Amino acid sequence: MNPPSLHSPWLPYRCRREDATLRLLCLPFAGGAASVFRPWETLLPPWIELCAVQLPGREGRLAERPHDDLGELLEDLVFALEPYCEVPFAVFGHSFGALVACELTRRLSARGRVPVLAGVSARKPPCVPVTEPTHALSDEAFLERLVGLNGIPELVLKSPEMLELVLPLIRADITMSETFVDLDPRPLPCSLSAFGGADDPSAREDTLRGWSRYTEAGFRLRMLPGDHFFLRGAAHTLVQCLVQDLLDEAPGLAPHSQRLPDASLIR
Q: Which of 8, 95, 159, 202 is flagged as catalytic?
C-alpha cells in the first residue's frame, strides 16, 4: 500500500505498513486524542494500517482552535481524510467519535468512498434523544458526571491547570454530540458493528441495538467487559472483534496466514 506522500496533522501516529491492504480510521471520545489508539498498533495484524485521527486542540495541535460545530468538523475531516480512502478502509469511533464516524461514513459514501465497515462504540444511536444532557451542566456538575463515567484520568483530576485546559474541550465535543439533529434517515451503505461496555449506564445493550437501523447491510452488536471506557481495559478483545468483522466483510484482504486462529472465541 502506497500512502499519500504529504504528512497530515490529522494523522500524526499513522502506522505506515507497505504490505497493508486496509486502513483503519479511528476517532476518539470527547476531549480525547489520537494517542489513545496507539496501543492498537501492536494488536492489529500486518494487513491493517492504523490511522488514528487527531482533532484540532489536542496534543500536537494544541494551538489550533477546536471545533464547536459538527458540520464544520465533518467538512474538514472529509477534506483531510478522503485522500487516504482511495484504498479499502474502515472507520471506527468511540463515544463522541462514534457519532463522528457515522456521519463521516455518510459523507464519504456520498462521494463514492464507501468503507468496508463502520464501527461505533459506547454511544447511543443518533435517533435516541438525550434525556439528561451533560453539556449545559455547571462546571462542578459537569466534572462530576465525567468522573462518574471514569472519563477523567487521575493525573488530570489532581491538576487544576490540566483540568482548566481539557474541560472546555470536552464540553465543546459533548455539546456537538448532544445537540446533533439527525436530518438524514438513510441507512449507511456498509455493514455496521456496534460495541458497548457491560457496565456502561450511558449506552446499554438494548439502546445500542438501535444502531441496526443505520445500515442497509450487516449489523453486529457485542458487549464487552468494562465501563464507558472499556476500549482501554478490553482493547485486545475489541480489536479482535473488529478484525474478525473486517474478515467477514472482505476475507480477501487478509493473507490466510494472518487470519485469527481463535476467531470463534469472539463470536
A: 95
